Amino acid sequence: MRLTILGAGSWGIALAVLLSRRGHVVSMWEFNSDDAAMLNEKREHANKLPGISIPEEIFITDNISQAFADADYVICAVPAQTMRSTMKAIAGSVPRTGISDVRCWIIVSKGIECGSLKLMSEVLAGEISGLSDSRIVVLSGPSHAEEVSRGIPTTVVAASHNRALAEEVQREFSTDSFRVYTNTDVVGVELAAGVKNVIAVAAGICDGLGFGDNTKGAILTRGMVEMVRLGKKMGADERTFSGLAGIGDLITTCMSKHSRNRKIGEMIGKGLSLEQALKNMVMVAEGVETTKSVYELAGKYEIEMPITTEVYRSLFENKSAREAARDLMMREFKPERW
Predict the structure, then answer these.
(1) Cβ pair 106, 139 in contact under 8 A
(2) What is the distance, to the nearest Å, from the Cα of residue 312 to the centroid of all Cα atoms in its chain?
(3) Is the predicted pLDDT of residue 283 greater than 90, yes or no?
(4) Mean of the pLDDT values across residues 302-308?
(5) What CATH number is associated with residue 57?
(6) Which residues form the domain of 54?
(7) For residue 291, what is the domain's CATH number?
(8) Do 236 and 178 sit in the same domain of this protein?
(9) Are 40 and 157 within one domain?
(10) What's residue 338's pLDDT?
(11) 302 domain-assigned
């Protein structure tokens, strides 16, 4: 099978290595021509995924039309907030026949578009003319690129309205170290992927403030409450949030040394401004921009999301992290409920 990966960041590279080892023919598109040249020459990204060699048989290009040649699957691994511009570039430069020949579009980007408040599947379908839900799969779960690329056992979920296509992705992607489950709740899986990054920023803020395990446990538990509240309002299956895309990814992202979102929260907790924290990041922390979207969705659906609200105020309204933590603790007394 021929696969095209859009985006040569750490996750794109990890998937390229995984799928090449699996026996697929892989092309990878990198929008930055200098980075594409560097990857072709060095066959490694020392900043984003050090120590992982990119097999010579993986074709790397900055030409999006070349990347699409004869693709059966297209994997969207670009940052969430660039998904729309990438799809516009494809619609404007790739021949229509090349686009229509793609049997499956797989989204691995995790976020909610700012402004429109759309999920990535909605952005994709809106920009690629004639693309139906039956050709879209969302792949998500606790899956740090640093570990997947090294063959550390990982499990994820492939969600699609087309169960047969999700099962096909399951067969084509699964290895002895990468196990894929299936689901039909696309909205739930995508929401979980976006909201857990916001909660991970909160977990990082707690780390930066020097709080302990008690606090982290509370953030994960009450963060899950916020995820479920929003999911129910948006038509998701509540059970999805108890699975890999929900609690599985939430635990991993809130606890891991690899988590960009936890890391940027930690810097905020230590007193850095958002601008200062972002300057210290090599890769995109999706939770920063997604915080805006989730905060606006909470207002749109008139639901309480207090952790999200305090993260938003800490990132964008210059509220001190310690004051935000205190305000969470001093909220009105109430029974524990979902």
Answers:
(1) yes
(2) 19
(3) no
(4) 97
(5) 3.40.50.720
(6) 2-184
(7) 1.10.1040.10
(8) no
(9) yes
(10) 62
(11) yes
| Separation between Cα atoms, residue 155 and residue 143, nearest integer Å | 7
Q: Which of 154, 180, 171 is nearest to 23 (CA)?
A: 171
Query: Is pLDDT of 226 > 90?
Result: yes
The number of CA neighbours under 13 Å toward the Cβ of 210 is 3
Confirm whether 196 is a catalytic residue.
yes
Q: Which two tokens stand for residue 192?
A: 């979980």
**Whether 153 and 202 share a structural domain:** no
pTM exceeds 0.90 for this model: yes
* Tokens of residue 288, six digits: 């920063």
Which residue reads 């290009």 in tokens? Answer: 61
Q: What is the pLDDT of residues 151-184, one digit of tens each?
A: 999 999 999 999 999 999 999 999 999 999 999 9
Of 156, 184, 212, the last residue of a domain is 184
Mean pLDDT, to the nearest integer, of 29-40? 96
The domain tally of the chain equals 2
Identified catalytic residue from 48, 110, 118, 196: 196
Q: List Cβ neighbours of 120 (8 Å cut-off, separation of 6 or more).
A: 76, 80, 83, 107, 109, 110, 111, 112, 113, 138, 190
d(CA 262, CA 183): 27
Q: 260-269 vs 186-208: helix axis angle to the nearest 10?
A: 30
- Determine the Cα–Cα distance for residues 327 and 312; give it in Å rounded to an integer: 13
Whether the pLDDT of residue 272 is over 70: the answer is: yes
End position of a domain, from candidates 184, 212, 233: 184
